[in-house]
Amino acid sequence: LGSVGSSPLDHCLPAFDQEYEGDRNSEGERHGYGKARLPNGDTYEGEYDRGLRSGRGTYRFKNGALYTGNYLQNRKHGKGIFFYPDGSKYAGDWVDDQRQGYGEYTYANGDTYSGEWFQHKRHGKGTYVYKDTESKYVGGWVNGLQEGPGELIHLNHRFQGRFFNGKPLGRGKYVFDIGCEQRGEYIQSQQEKEEEEEEEEEEASLPVDPKWKASEISQLTPWTPEDEKPPSP
C-alpha cells in the first residue's frame, strides 16, 4: 500500500506511516477512513481518529486471525467478531481490548459458550454446550470456571446444585426423566486430603474430584439453590 496526497509534511512522518492510504487531518494524522500495513505484516482497514484506530474497522493478523468490529484509541472496544487461527470464534462485547460484557464463543472442538465475560474470561451467568455429548451447563462462572448455583444437563438426567472451581461441591440433587430425584452432596474424602499432605514435599498431586454421597430418593421437587457459599475443598 502506498501513500496518497503526498505533501512536504509526509517526509517528517515515521517511515512506517508511508504504508498508509487514506484520509488525514490538517495536522497530517491519519483521520477518517484508510488502509494501513503495519511493520509486522498485519493490515488494518477502517476508521481513524487523530492517528489512532477508532470506529469501525477490520484488522487482519499475519498468522491468519481476523478482527472486525469497533475500536477506540487503537483498542478493540464495543461490538466485534474475532476469528482465531485455530478456527474458533468470539462474537460479542469488548472493553479495552478484552472480551467483556456479553458474548458467544465457538471453540475449535465445536463446544460453545454464550454468556457474560470479564477481562477475557467467562464470568457471570452463562451456558456452555459440549458438542460431543450434547450435555449443557447453565449457571454461574468465576474467572473462567463454573462456580455458584448451576445445572449440568445430560440426555436423560440433570444435576442441580452448586459448583466451585469448576466442579460440583456441596448439597445438590440428580433429577431423572423417569420422574424421581436423588438428593445428596459432593464431598472430598479425608483420605485424599491426608495423601496430599504426605506428598506435600514431593511433586504436587493432581486435583481430586469430589465424590457424590447420596442421602435419599424422592419424587420431583422444585429446585431452589441456596445462596450459601459452598464448603472449600
TrEMBL record:
Key words of the record: Cell projection, Cilium, Cytoplasm, Cytoskeleton, Flagellum, Meiosis, Repeat
Start and end residues of each stretch annotated as Disordered: 20-44, 186-233
Subcellular location(s) per record: Cytoplasm, Cytoskeleton, Flagellum axoneme
Domain of life: Eukaryota
GO BP: any one term: spermatid development
UniProt key word Cytoplasm: yes
One CC-aspect GO term: motile cilium
Recorded coiled-coil stretches: none
Keyword Repeat appears in the UniProt entry: yes
Biased composition (Acidic residues): 193-204
Basic and acidic residues bias spans: 21-32
PANTHER family, A to Z: RADIAL SPOKE HEAD 1 HOMOLOG
Record function comment: Functions as part of axonemal radial spoke complexes that play an important part in the motility of sperm and cilia.
Name listed for the protein in its UniProt record: Radial spoke head 1 homolog
Source species of the chain: Smithornis capensis
